[in-house]
Specification:
2 domains, 8-stranded mixed beta sheet, ProC C-terminal domain-like fold, 13 helices, elongated, 13% strand, alpha/beta, 274 residues, Rossmann fold
């Protein structure tokens, strides 16, 4: 999705790694004048870095950052909700501003309870946003204007792919794509180790493994073919690939991924109870 954002001012609460990744994507895509992107950073050094690097307006006063903003992106860690999102900040937000959250495990209901009367969009991005290859699920709350949803799609779309979902599905999204990079890094590391065992130099093994994962994912996305169809395209009868796949099945790799997703869902449930 291209074109300029129909926003006069956009504010970020939090200028950490994820916030910076989104800002980098937006400024690189020219979605809006960088000076109209305001960031409430935790430290003066961080504010200065963001302003110098991306041309945004960075301050250490969150209330100043949000004043007059059409949209406010909450780019902080979930455990910071009570200490950062206080009544003074909520009162400083413009009446019609839309709140967008990237915080895991913090519901639309909780956010709407802090920013009373505001439309809320909950998102679940993942860390490859930092290299423009992220996956962000977008869950609009009830009554969110269509143009605000479109703006969220534009913002996260310049950092990778987006998918509109319902909030009830966001924990499952977290378990698949939110935590998914962690699973993939483990598998890249393991495949690279296997390459080293097969006498490849370490650097070559890592590059071969990483690009293989990157390219395979791109094949799935760009061809639209089911992964099993693409797998069959490289699996000759009685050949080497099917021998390797048999070894993976015997090692319960598929079952391990089922278990990883379920473990995330179980842990998310535990965190919500606290």
């Amino acid at each position: 999705m291209t074109g300029k954002l129909n926003l006069h001012k956009l504010a970020f609460i939090g200028g950490g790694a994820m916030g910076e990744a989104i800002i980098k994507g937006m400024t690189g895509a020219g979605l809006m004048d960088p000076a109209s992107i305001w960031v409430g950073a935790h430290r003066q050094e961080r504010a200065a870095y963001l302003q110098e690097t991306y041309g945004v307006t960075a301050v250490i006063d969150n209330t100043e950052a949000v004043k007059g903003a059409d949209m406010v992106i909450l780019a902080i860690k979930p455990q910071m909700v009570d200490s950062v999102l206080d009544a003074a900040l909520a009162e400083a937000v413009e009446e019609k501003a839309v709140i967008v959250s990237i915080m895991g495990s913090v519901t639309i209901e909780k956010i709407a309870g802090i920013f009373k009367g505001h439309s809320v969009i909950r998102t679940m991005p993942n860390t490859p946003l930092a290299v423009g290859a992220g996956m962000t699920a977008i869950a609009p709350g009830a009554g969110v204007p269509a143009d605000a949803v479109q703006a969220a799609e534009q913002i996260f779309g310049c950092c990778g792919e987006t998918l509109l979902i319902q909030e009830k599905d966001i924990e499952a999204v977290t378990a698949v794509s939110g935590c998914g990079p962690g699973y993939v890094y483990v598998m890249i590391d393991a495949l690279a180790d296997a390459g080293v065992m097969a006498v490849l130099p370490r650097a070559a093994a890592i590059k071969l493994a990483a690009q293989t994962f990157a390219g395979s994912g791109k094949m799935v996305l760009e061809t639209g073919k089911h992964p099993a169809v693409l797998r069959d395209m490289v699996t000759s009868p009685g050949g080497t690939t099917i021998a390797g796949i048999k070894a993976l099945e015997n090692g319960a790799v598929r079952g391990a991924l089922y278990n990883a997703v379920q473990a995330v869902l179980d842990r998310s449930e535990e965190l919500r109870k606290h």
